Amino acid sequence: FLLKNPVKGYFPLTPLNSYLKRSLNERIAQQMIGVQASITMGKLRSIRVFILGDVQQPGSYMVSALSTMTNALFVSGGITKIGSLRNVQLKRRGEVVTTLDLYDLLLRGDTSQDTRVQPGDVIFVPTVQKMVGVSGAVYRPALYEVKGEKSVQELLQLAGGLLPTAYKLSSQIERIGGNGKRSLQNINLQKKLGLGQAVQAGDVIHVDAVLERMERVVHLKGEVQRPGARQWSQGMRLSDLIEDEYNLLEAADVQYCIVIHEPKMGEKTAVESANLASVIRNTQSKENIELHPRDQIIILPVHEDRAKILDEVVDTIYSESHFGEMANVVKVTGHVRFEGGYPFEEGMDVKALLSASLGLLPGADANYALIRRVSGIERHIEVLPVSLKDENGLQQRLKPEDELIILKHGERRMEPVEILVLELKEQATREHNAPVVEVTGMVKFPGQYPLSPGMTVKELLQAAGGMREEAYSASAELIKREVLDGGYRETSHKVIALSSKNSTLESGSTELHSFDLVHIRPIPLWQESRVVTIEGEVTFPGSYVLSRSETLTQLLERAGGATSEAFLEGAVFSRDAIRKREKRQFLDAADQMERELLSSAVSGADESKMESGELAAAKQLIQKLRDTEVLGRLSIPLQGIMQGVEADVPLMGGDKLILPRKTDTVTVVGEVFLPSSHMYREGMNVDDYIQSSGGETGKADLDKVYVIKANGIAISPDGGGSLMGKTRESWFGVQALSSEDTIVVPLAVGEESFWTKVSGISETLYQLSLTIAALSSVGAL
Asked: What are the structural domains of the chain?
C-alpha cells in the first residue's frame, strides 16, 4: 500500500501492524520539517460492483474499496474466449467512464487505464469484433484482436516479432474474400511493401521458417570420438575428417566404412565403401574418397550387428528401385559374422562383401559357397558356386541383389542348399529342365545340388564336402537320366575315373547335365574295427580287434590259450546278431501272450478257470519277457574245435567267449520243491537229483523232463512215459549224465487252459532261465 501526501507524494506503507503509526510519524518527521502528523487508522470497507458481458462468471461481487478493473475481472474468473480484451468498459451511472485495453497491460505493462472501481460500478466485457491470426516463426503465434492495427508489420509487433529462424522471403496471408472464397497472397517481409500490406478481419498471417537442412556440411556417424556435422569445403576427403586412429573409438572397424552420397534430383542414392586403415596410412590412397555436400560417413562397429545399422540405407535403396530393376543391394547369409543386406557398389566382389560382413565364422566351408542371382522381370534364379580359398573365387564380381550363401560343416548344412534346389525345381519348365544334380554314397554331404554351367563330377564332389575316408577314390558311377523325344525317360550307367591311373575310363572332368547322379562306392571290404571279447580262464582275457577271417582258435591263441582250470565243455559263446533276434522273439512272445490274455478275458471262456493267482502270474510272465536280457548264446563244441575234430568258428564283431572254471555240480531247476545245485556223484541218475531237490511238485510234467548239457545242448528222453524208476542208461542210451549238467522239470499245462495257448512262450522263458542257471552253476555268469 502507498500513502499519498500532497507535498511529498506517496509513502510506502509497511504491513499493517501495531508499529504502523510510529513508523509513519518517524518517516514524516524526517522528510517534512516543522510538520506534526496526527494519524488515525480504520478498517477498509467493501463495495459492490457488477461484472457483466463475456466473462466466465458474470454477476454482482463484493470487492475491496481499493480494487481496480483488473482486480474485479479476476474475481469473476476472467474473460471468455469470445470476450474482447481491448474494449473492457467501466460504466458509472449508465455512462462509460473509461475503457481498458488489456493488450497495453499484458504486452506493454501499462496500468494507466486500470481505473479504481467505486460502489455500483459496472464492468462490461463486449464480444470481440475483428480478429487476425499470426502463425509460424513468430514469438507469440496466436489469434489477435485488431483495434487500431492495419498492417502486417503492426500485427507482427503484437505477435512479439519474428523469430531468428523466420524466412522473410516466404510468408503468406490467407484471406476470405467478399465472395466467400479463400485466397492466399505471398508477401516478402524484407520489403516495406510486404510489411505495409493491409490486413482485415479473418486474415491469417503465416511466417515460414528457414529449412532445417544444412547444405554445406557432411555428417560423421558411428564409432568416432566426436560424431556430428562438419563444414564441407571444396575438395574435402575422408582424411580431412579422420586424420588418425585417435579420432576413432576402440570398437571401430577400420577395414570397412561407408560414405552415402545424397542423390540429386532424379538420381538414386549412391554408396561407396572405404578402408580407413589405408586412408590413415596413405592419404593418396584411392580409398580416400572425395566428399560432397550432405554426405553421410558411417564408421561401423566390430562387435555389433552392422546389418541392423545399415537397414535404413538398405531400405532406402530398395524403395528407389522400380519394377524390373535390381536394387543396388547385395546380401550375405549363412556362417558369417554379420548376415544381412549391404549397399552394392560397382565392381564389388565376393572378397569385399565378406570384408563388409567381418568374414567367416569358425566351421564355415571355404571350399564351396553359393551365389544366388536373380535376373529379369520374372526374377529368374541362377546359382553359381564359388571357392573362398581360390583367389579367382574371391574376385568373383557380384551383381545387384546377389546373395552370397556361406555353408558350414556339420548338421543343417544342407538346409540352404535344399531351399535353392526347391526354387530351381519350381521355375523349371518342359523346355528348361531344373539345373539340379545329385551325389550319393561315400561323400560327406550326399544330396541334390544346384547345377552350374560346365560343372564337372569333381566339382560336384567338392560341393558335397569331399569323399569320406572309406570312399573308393579310383572311380565313381555316373548315372544319366534323359527324357527322350518327350515321351519316356531312359537311365544309363557308366563308370568314370577319379584318378589318372584309370586311363581307360572317362575322366572325372566329365561335364554334368540335369538329372545326373554320381554314386561313390565304398572301398571293398572296408569296415570299422571289429572287436571281440574273451573272459574267464584264459591267459590274457580282454578285448581284441579282429583281422579278416579270424577264427575262434586263432583268438584263443592270441589270448595265450586256456588255463589248466578252464572248463572247455562249459564255454559260453554269444553273438550280437543272435542276441538281437532272441530279444525280438521275446518281445513278440510278450505281445502274443497279451493278446491271448485279452482274448480270454473278452470271450470269458477261460475266465472261470483262471484264478486270480494265475492271472497275476500271466501278467508277471509278460513283464518278465519284456525285461529279460537275452544272452544270444551259440552252442559250440569248444573242446572238439581245439582238438581239430570239429569245424572252427569264424568270428564276427561283438562276439564274446567266456571260459568258466569247472565246479563239479549238477543243477536242478523248474517244478521241484527246492531248485538248487548238487555235487556231482558218479552213479546218480536224473531221478536221484530230482529227489535231492525235494522231489517234483504237483504241477510238474515228468514226461517232458530234459537235461541241458554244459555246452548248451538240450537232451530229452527217447520215448514218452514217466522217468521215475528208469536208470540213466535206459534214458540216455550210450550217453551218461555229466558234471555241470542242468536238469529241467517243466510245468504241466492243462489241455484247455490259458497256459496251453502260451506253453511255447513259457517254455522259451524256462529255457532262458535254465540256461542262465546253468551258466551260473559253472561260474560263467
From this structure: 2-31 (no CATH), 46-125 (3.10.560.10), 131-209 (3.10.560.10), 583-631+663-777 (3.10.560.10)
